[in-house]
Design a protein that fits this description.
eight-stranded mixed β-sheet, 8 strands, alpha/beta
């Protein structure tokens, strides 16, 4: 079933994003520690390659499959001729435990300057995580939110120890958030509705699963940005922003139809050009805090976020997501943000 609210302007933006100029990254990351999740392939791999090329001291590939991660590491080393920079860490966002294992290792880092939250999945059908959540909801929203909280905690610590550099936390969003009407926001418990198998497999709802998951995590990260110390006076200790890389060649569409993937190949960006957009977001200053970039320009996200009703939904979803995480890890938000 096709999305019912695809506008002409949305289609034009998709088509134009494939040919829009994408600046080649040139910001130095000498001495910096960087994490890129979902980086064994596609735009995550290309972003990690750029960070290595630009002098980062340590670039951590957060990947689900270690064998593929090691192959990505060799690929980066061959192309950049820089050894002993890339590290491959397992990150399994399909469970809270797998996510927490990565977090525990991350907390031992001396510093964390840049973190790019790129890992995500798209899928149809039904698969339940070990924690009892539908897998796309678990990976793209709940586990990613848990990781973002602890990344921010680590970066606040890093900012105070190394004040010469303001850390960046970048969430890879999607223009797909514009497609969902998010009717579920009117229900008492949105996450419970979205975790209902019968509801989710209804053809009227199934197509929305990926774009809706990106909308929910964008709500969470925007609200998280509001809570960064110093954000209320325009001087956040960590810059938190979001980037839409546009339609890019990647393995995200491995479960899509041949026709859909052919369309991406014809009109989309290469993975390398998509990776550049992640570096563009990571290089932006505090003017981008809480903001959203597309085609390497800082622009407002869709009205489903910026409208008065969208702001109500944002606070509602922050509360619901935090409630789930706090049930699993009591005191989590206070531990990470001190509030």
């Amino acid at each position: 079933m096709a999305p019912p609210n695809v506008s002409f302007s949305f289609v034009c933006s998709i088509l134009l994003s494939g040919i829009w100029p994408t600046p080649y990254p040139n910001t130095s990351y000498t001495g910096k520690t960087v994490i890129v999740t979902g980086s064994n392939t596609g735009i995550g791999l290309e972003a990690a390659r750029h960070f290595v090329r630009l002098g980062a001291a340590k670039v951590i590939l957060g990947v689900r499959n270690l064998e593929k991660g090691e192959a990505a590491k060799r690929n980066i080393e061959t192309s950049t001729l820089r050894l002993d920079v890339v590290e491959v860490w397992q990150l399994d966002l399909s469970s809270f435990a797998g996510t927490k294992d990565f977090i525990d290792k991350m907390m031992s880092l001396e510093r964390l300057d840049v973190a790019v939250m790129n890992a995500a999945m798209a899928g149809l059908g039904w698969k339940e995580s070990v924690d009892g959540w539908e897998e796309v909801l678990q990976v793209n929203v709940l586990s990613t939110a848990l990781l973002c909280l602890w990344v921010l905690h680590k970066q606040l610590e890093s900012a105070r120890l190394h004040p010469e550099f303001k850390p960046r936390l970048v969430l890879v969003g999607s223009e797909g958030h514009e497609l969902t009407t998010f009717q579920e926001r009117k229900t008492k418990n949105v996450l419970k509705v979205l975790n209902n198998k019968e509801y989710l497999l209804d053809p009227a709802n199934e197509w929305e699963r990926y774009p809706l998951s990106k909308l929910l995590i964008m709500y969470f990260v925007r609200e998280l940005a509001n809570r960064v110390p110093g954000a209320d006076i325009g001087k956040p200790e960590v810059v938190v922003n979001m980037v839409n890389p546009g339609m890019c060649e990647s393995e995200l569409g491995r479960n899509q139809s041949f026709a859909a993937n052919l369309f991406v190949t014809i009109v989309g960006k290469s993975a390398e050009r998509g990776g550049r957009t992640l570096l563009d977001a990571a290089a932006r200053g505090q003017e981008s805090h809480g903001g959203y970039t597309t085609s390497c320009k800082l622009v407002p996200p869709a009205a489903i976020i910026t409208s008065e009703e969208g702001q109500v939904a944002q606070k509602k979803m922050w509360g619901e997501i935090v409630e789930v995480l706090e049930e699993k890890y009591p005191g989590l938000v206070k531990s990470c943000l001190g509030n």
